[in-house]
Amino acid sequence: MMINFIIRDAAGAYALDARNRGDQGESKMPETTVTWPRKTREIQNAITDSTRWNGFKFRDGDIVVATYAKTGTTWTQQIVGQLIFQGAENSVFEASPWVDMRIFPLDEIMQMLDAQTHRRFMKTHLPLDALVFSPQAKYIYVARDGRDTAWSLYNHHAGFTDQAYEMINNTPGRVGPPMERPGDDIVEYFREWLDGRGLPMGASFWEHIQGWWDARHLPNVLLVHFNNLKADMPGEMRRIAAFLGIEIDEARWPDMVEHCTFDYMKRTASSHSPMLDGMFNGGGQTFFNKGTNGRWRDVLPAADVQKYERIASENLTPDCARWVATGEMAR
Question: Pairing between strand 2-9 and 12-19?
Answer without folding.
Answer: antiparallel
